[in-house]
Write a structure and sequence with these properties.
mainly alpha; Polysaccharide biosynthesis protein
Length: about 500
Amino acid sequence: MSKQHLSLKEKTAHGLLWGGLNNGFQQLLNLFFGIWLSRILNVEDYGIIGVLTIFTLIATTLQESGFTQAIANKEKPTHHDFNAIFWCSSSIGISLYIILFFAAPYIAQFFQIPELTSVARFLFIGFVLSSLGTAHNAYLFKYLMVKERAISMLTGLTISGIVGVTLAYNGFAYWGLAAQHITYILCTNSLFWYFSRWKPSWNFNLKPIKELLPFSSRILITKICIHINNHIFNILLGRLYSKTEVGYYSQSNKWNLMGSSIITEMIQGVAQPVLRNVVSDKDRQKRVLIKLFRFTAFTSFPALFGLAYIAPEFISIALTEKWLKSAYILQILCIGGAFIPLNHLLGNFIISRGKSSIYMWNTIALGLTQLTSALLLYPYGVHTMVSTSVGIQILWTVIWTLFAYKEIHFTLFNLFRETLPYLTAIVVSITLSHYCLVNFENIYLLFFSKIISVGFLYILILIIFRASILKESYNFAKTYFLKTAKNKTH
């Protein structure tokens, strides 16, 4: 049976399966190469690249311009739609590179880091490379070709990781991180071209952009705000503190975003297309949203709270003692990170309803609130700034729910019913594990004992209280694999 003939439920299962495998293996590769690079490089090396992260993310978002989500919301996109995206995105990418090439010395002057000029000009080449694959990525996303996107990203991560570690090991310092970034973009987008059934033509008709622009422009602004929210501290610390402080925060934030993105990307790869397919039936869309929300909470809370629990041991073992100061920051960030996938899911729901303006303004409000709190609290230290930002992130889950209620009556009761059981289960599991292992002194034994005990206790608690998600997940996987095996025999 071809993918085109799968039911919506089967497509969701297929997407979640490959999305989960993709993000799981992605983070394992990021973990492997991240540990190697962290051991080779020093805190200042990460600080230099860290202050440029926000520029690369915002510029990449500008060249993508929200076209991926916009085309996913279009019922039957044509060749001309994808072709217009290709030429528009490419033009923006090239223009941005030219602008930022000449702006690089001023960026270096702002942060008082002379090395940034040459590094920025090299790193910003990624804008041009990624712009050439925007339309192809949009094609794969629209048609739920999650497997093909997974292969592309995993291949890119592997090759780029090898390049980064090799250069860092041979003394190229922060240039290894920069080269890793460029290599990943080049490999991934090359494979997007290979897997996409669509290819560009020499037709410069940009009329479809006018149709997509009202929706895509709001997605664009929203994504920029999200990147600012995630990386604003790199800019503030780079300006107000030292490269060392940026390095510690950048390292902590990297692992936090890596943990939350496992869940976020897995859900995001299917949420908007699937929710869009049932947009005409509010009751069915609500049921789909609740199931996705339950699954997100079930996976997000143990992943991020678990990472917070093992942070000191993980940092000491994997990255060595020189990074230990980042462990406490990581613990704080992970608490807020557990709610990021939930917020993203609700945001994707709002997009599926065609309300990109709500998505945009709510994200802008979140960003402005976090930025204001950071500017007011920076004299009190990094930990105070980060803790307040995390509190705001958690509060915003409630605000997203209020918007969802206006659309399909997804209530605060639904929010608490689908999150509190898993939040309670993981907090109880970590508490019991902590008191059982309090006398363990061997750091390696403590590290693995924490992981095993929390995982066991979390599942045990859900079994005792007969959590429906366990049966749903089992039946979900069983049905999918049985049908896949049956299709192969035919």
